[in-house]
Amino acid sequence: MSSVIIDPCCFTRQGLREYLLSHRIDSQCYNGIDTPKHFSDILGQQTPSFVFISGHCVDNFCPENREMEDVIARHPETLFFIFLTLPNGHFNGYLYLRENIIVTSKALERENLDRLLSPHLNSVKNNQRRLRKQAIKPVALSRAETDMLRMWMSGCDTLQISDRMQIKVKTISSHKGNIKKKINTRNKLVIHQLMKISETLTGGLNTSC
Predict the structure, then answer these.
(1) Which of 58, 118, 126, 184 lies 20 to 30 A from 86 at CA?
(2) Which strand (E) or helix (H) includes residue 142?
(3) Residues of the chain falling short of pLDDT 50
C-alpha cells in the first residue's frame, strides 16, 4: 500500500510519514498543489490507498470549480483525509463527507486514526469492502437544513433567515441544533470550513428529502 501526504507543514508530513511507516505504508510527501491537474497528476503516478491533504491546499479552489470533485471521483478506492485549518478552534472528531472522504483535523487522536484505517488495511475480499461501506454513514442534512445553513454561513442572522425561508425562529434554532448534532460540533468555524470543503470537493453536503 502507498499514501500521499500534501501539507505545507513539515512536522505534519514527518509525523504522518512515520505513523504510516509503522503500518508498512510508504508515503510520498508534497508541500501543496497548484491546480486540480497537479493533484490529478500526483495521484495518477501511484494510485495511493490513502491521501492526507491540508485544507490550506484546497482553499484557493473556488466552489464553482468541479475539477477537484472530478479528480476524487476517479479514485473511488482511495481514502481521502482532509484536515481542517483551525487557528482559533478545536475539533478532535471526524466526519465522512462521502464513503471515501473523511474531514477531520490534526487533533485527531492516534487510536481514532487506527480505527479509520484498519477496515481499509484489512479489506482484501470484496465482501469485506461491502461490509466496510455499509458501516459508513456520511453526514447528510435535510433540504431545509441545507438551505438554512447556506444563509447562516453567509452571515445572515436568525431574523433574516426566518424572513427569507418563511419559517419560525424556533424552527431555525431546531435546524441549527440538528446540524450541530449531525456534524458533532458546536463550533461555528468547524461548520463553516466543513461546508466550504464540501462545496469544493463534493459539490456540497449530502442532502436528504
Answers:
(1) 118
(2) strand 140-142
(3) 124-127, 131
> Which residues have a Cβ under 8 Å from the Cβ of 57 and sit 6 or more positions away?
6, 7, 8, 32, 33
- pLDDT for 162: 92
pLDDT of residue 56: 84
Q: Does 19 share its domain with 82?
A: yes
Q: Of 103, 135, 167, which residue is a domain's last?
A: 135
The CATH number covering residue 204 comes to 1.10.10.10
Write down the pLDDT at residue 46.
81
Cα 46 to Cα 27, 34, 43: the distances in Å are 10, 19, 6
The CATH code of the domain that includes 30 is 3.40.50.2300
Q: Whole-model pTM?
A: 0.86
